[in-house]
Amino acid sequence: MIYRLKPQQGDTVAVPQLVFARLGAAEEASVRVALYVLATGVTDPDKLCADLKLRSRITAESALAYWAGAGLLERYDENAAPGGGEPAPTPMRWTEIAAASRTDPMIASLIDCAQTTFARALTHSEMEKLVALYLQEGFEPETVMLCLAYLAGKGKRTMGALSHELKVWRAEGVETGEEADAHLKLLALREKREAYVASLLETEPAALTLGGKKAIARWYEVYGYDDAMVQEAAVQAGPKRDLWYWNSILKTWNAKGLRTVRDVRGPAPVAGASRNIRVDRETPSGNDFLQGALDRPRRHKRKE
């Protein structure tokens, strides 16, 4: 069967050459996202997931980040007004915080929690930034408190680290306290998986790069693979202990629809299908073919 392009009836969408140049390297989901964005202009991860039936929000986020890095999309500050208008609101001053805390007890709770977590008194500047996260940027107090505890466990006790981590959480769809609690469990699971992969690589988890950690998360959360599949990729790679080589193996398996180790290795051979398969008996037969070998008459090839 031979195919050819049908004449277009005006229902076409211009696709930049950049997309065609990336077809060989971009994942299927990334290509679908690019075409959808070009046709609709929509870049909301939740809508992308719903309309394109993507596996998770992280798939949409990764695709958007990929095309932003490639130059197809551009990042912008969501708080900035279009056309160079008013910038994002400045943090509240100490006098404003003191006045607001008289009517909102959550402000005092946030400050107490931060001071307890940091094991020191906050400066006025730090209090202003902390309250701005709650009142101006809209982060729920419980989410902020859980994030504070998480960062303290990693030795990060600064307002800059808190602000950055909360924005990362928001990008992953974390808003409420319940969502934050579930996200912390996911982060703990990711750390466990990263430690497992690092052990296969015979290195320390701290040696993994950010890109490597994202790849590991994709294996489990997007491809849906488990430790057994990751280990099988390491086995198939042989002595080559390279995370990105393993990533190419797992990516290929996912594209082929291979979901289990049995899928990868193929079905077990049918009985009798090969004469070279060794079958050991559960109990010895008792026959020793070497028994009495010295007493047997020698056989010589007859000369013609």
Query: How much helical structure, as a percent, in the residues?
Result: 55-70%
Give a short account of the largest sheet: none
User: Structural class of the secondary structure composition?
Assistant: mainly alpha
Q: What is the radius of gyration computed over CA atoms, rounded to a whole number of angstroms?
A: 30 Å
Basic shape: flat
Mean pLDDT: 81
The stretches of 5 or more residues where confidence is low (pLDDT under 50) are 81-86
Number of helices: 14
What is the straight-line distance between the termini? 64 Å
Work out the oligomeric state of the chains in this entry. single chain
What is the string of helix and strand elements? HHHHHHHHHHHHHH
Count of beta strands: 0
Proportion of residues in β-strands:
under 5%
Written account of the structure:
The structure is a single chain. It is built from 14 helices and no strands. It has 304 residues and is mainly alpha-helical. α6 packs parallel to α8, α8 packs parallel to α10 and α12 packs across α13. It starts with 16 loop residues before the first helix and ends in a 39-residue tail after the last helix.
Summarize the entry for a quick read.
Residues 114-183, 214-265 form the DnaB/C C-terminal domain. This protein has 304 residues and is mostly helical. It has helices spanning 17-21, 28-40, 45-52, 57-70, 94-101, 105-118, 124-135, 141-153, 159-171, 177-201, 210-222, 227-237, 243-256, 261-265.
